[in-house]
Amino acid sequence: MTTTVATTSIRTEERASLLGRVLGSPLARLIARRILIATPLLLAISILVFAMLEAIPGDPARNQAGMDATEEQVEAVRKQMGLDRPAVERYLTWLGGFVTGNLGRSSVSEQPVTSLLAERMPVTIELVALAFLVSLAIAIPVALLAARKPGGVFDRVVMVISMTLLAVPNYVMALLLVLVFAVTLRSLPAIGYVSLDDGLLANLRSVTLPVLALAIPLACFYARFLRGDLVEQMNSADYVETARAKGVTPWKVLWGHAFRNSSFGLLTLVGLNIGGLVGGTVIVEQIFSMPGLGVLMLQGVMSRDTAVVQICVFIFAAVAVLANLVVDVMYAVLDPRIRYGHR
Amino acid sequence: MTRSAKGGRSAKRLIGTLAVVSGLAMAATGCVSGGGDGGSSGAAGDPTPGGELTVLLDSGFAGGWATGLDPATSNTTGANLAQNSAIFGGLFTLEPDGDGGGEIVPNQAEAYSWSDDGLTLTITLRDGITFTDGTPLNAEAVVWNWIRALNSGSTGTPRLQLDETIPAPDLGDEFMTSLWEALPADVDREAVERHLGAIQATDELTVTMTLTAVNGALINGFPTSSFNLIASPTAYAATTPEEFSLNPVGAGPFVVESNKMSERLELTKNPDYFKPGLPYLDAINFQSVAGDQVAYQTLLAGQGDVIEGLSSVPLITEATNNPDVEVHLGAPTSPYVVQLNTRVAPFDDIRAREAIYYATDFEAINEGLFKGEGEMSQTFTASGGLFYEPEVDGYRTYDLDKAKALVEELGGLTVTLGTTDIVTARSVITALQTQWAEAGIDVTINAEPLGDVITRFINGDWQSLLQTAGAWDPSVGIGVGVRFGSTSPFSGTPLPEGAASAQEALQNGLQTELDVLLNEAVATNDEDERKAKYLEIATYISDQAYAPFGMAFSPAQVIRKGVHGPGLDDPIPALSVNQGVLYDRVWVASGQ
Lengths: 343, 592
Description:
heterodimer; A: mainly alpha; MetI-like fold; 2 domains; B: alpha+beta; seven-stranded mixed β-sheet; 19 helices; 20% strand
């Protein structure tokens, strides 16, 4: 009996000690610090977005009601949109609701914002996640092959193609992809989204073109960046020389040594790009008629639906902040030289 | 009157802002002849039942239904003609008259009549029509819907001068409970009671509406108004307002299968539709798409069969030359107009306005920008509109010498010319700037977002604005009153004498001579009298040099070969912005 109590007591102490170590670790402190910094940042963003919506010229109620609406009808719309209350009161109401988990209703459709988000977020998350995977899946092998023989035919072709594609805006890319794959080849749908519930293949067919529209410019960017960094590492880094001197094959040096170092830079880029990529979904979702967060936000902006726009922008901003936090954490995990907690 | 055409509007209409964008959008539609066979339904053979159709609608206008499809609460009734026609059918429809024009025809209504004094409208409903939930579409249902529309804040509700002195009849507890539950919690109950006196069900199939002033445009306005759309009160009571807004129940040719707001609406055939053998189609889908380019590519990719209101010039040219599609335009109803703000300098001086008339050569712009295919107009409507007059006596046409002389007499003329930021509208104001400069007018042009233009109108902070004016009936929607009535926020005509603002004029019941004419034009049910009044109005606007008019265009229907129906290959004039399509009679040729 005494032994059992003692054992339990030791385990509890061990757990407490482990928890203490985790919480007190540099990584945990880093995460806590970043979250603390992010909170006022996100608050500031929410205020800024609200102010910007207020500053858009024109009367949103009149906009919503139409030109032939009577003044009474315009006032009714104003009331329905909540615009008859002072701006500060409306912001504080939104903030209070946000903190308590009540995001309110769309002032246009009257639907609960939470249900709108629940419908739309999976679409955007799928698009962004696949776009990243596809862009990296293209960029890494292409960059490795190009860096293997800098100035070679493959390298030159890749550089020219990637520069060309980088110059194409994603909405033009989207239309070109539709022209080739939907209109000419008729192999993929031009618009629409098929939910995963309706089958994986159908879902993947429906997202292929929008994912490519997002991923191709990113892949070009990553490939060019990674190729440049790899070539620099291969030409000047001491550890590369050492590896070569040890008789390690060029491919192994490239893949096993140089790429590992270059991946940190790539990781930074990926983190920085997340905000831009999520922003890119606004246009791409619109072109491909995808029922995602981007389209929801655009519709919200057009109709000055504050409740919807506020939360959409907040989510976009939070994703960008979170992405950078994840990159920092991954740095700390991957690179033992980095000791954030001791700085 | 069907003609194949191409044209151009790159308008992206903001949801709910019907007028500015819609007008410019339509006006920007250049008509170019050629291509397609322009086949009418008559040449297409006998209608074939069956099949499914996907209609592509611009997300910026007809493809936006963010406020839902409940007629009483939707703010996009005028834009969502296609969806509403399919779900509700309508008491009245605007039908093609076979000569490019249109005529209002009772649909779910069997007939209508006006009392001798023109103040009481009596509508008789067809017997035996049921909603898709099986309940009857009767007079009581019409009253329920109209009272809801009047008291729920929808901007699709017509402006009515109801006689509110008539006592409301005893309608029974069941009806009143159903009605109160369907109205906003803070509704003005006394107003509802007054409305119930003016609008009454006199028997199972007869509804009367009593007005205090004759309204000759009331019936013509039905197809774009929420009053035309009768929903099932029983179905409403059985669900939540939000759910009903998503899945409304009407007595139209189709039933809502699924609805993703402003994205995709899927409908299936109503097997109990009141017209035998109709609808022809088994199912119809409305897909919202991001503009003309996406719509056209989607059509070519086989994911759509119809584009309502395609407007980009290059795309319509492309479509006209594509053997797989047809392009059809209706007769136009809304010409370009340069509104001049007479309330501020320099256009408070008629000589400055005259100089603009004489310096403006819309025919040259029509040739240069639209290949001469626009239809020139000297008034607020075009050949597709009711009461159209091709020429107005005394209209000041292009005369550079006169323009120069007037500018010299004025000691120079400096003006700003604005418009909504749409590609074609920008091109037109650039051309106008060049023309006006030749007359010695110093012009600053400015294309701004729609919100800014509306703000300018409301604040009176503008000198001249390129807009479009008109509707099928000039007094419906964004008609002549919106552009030229002195108390309209979107007008630059003089305020009534003694009024410092439109609000003051309204409060004191002050009117201008033009206001009186505008009111008189709707204060009669006699079409000939109305026509004469509108000619007087056109002449008055011309004489006072309030606004030079230009070319008018019609929205284009682009359809896959083998698709037929009224409003598609058998054009109907645009009611205000887009054409109505009578989807119960749309069919797809077998094998297409």
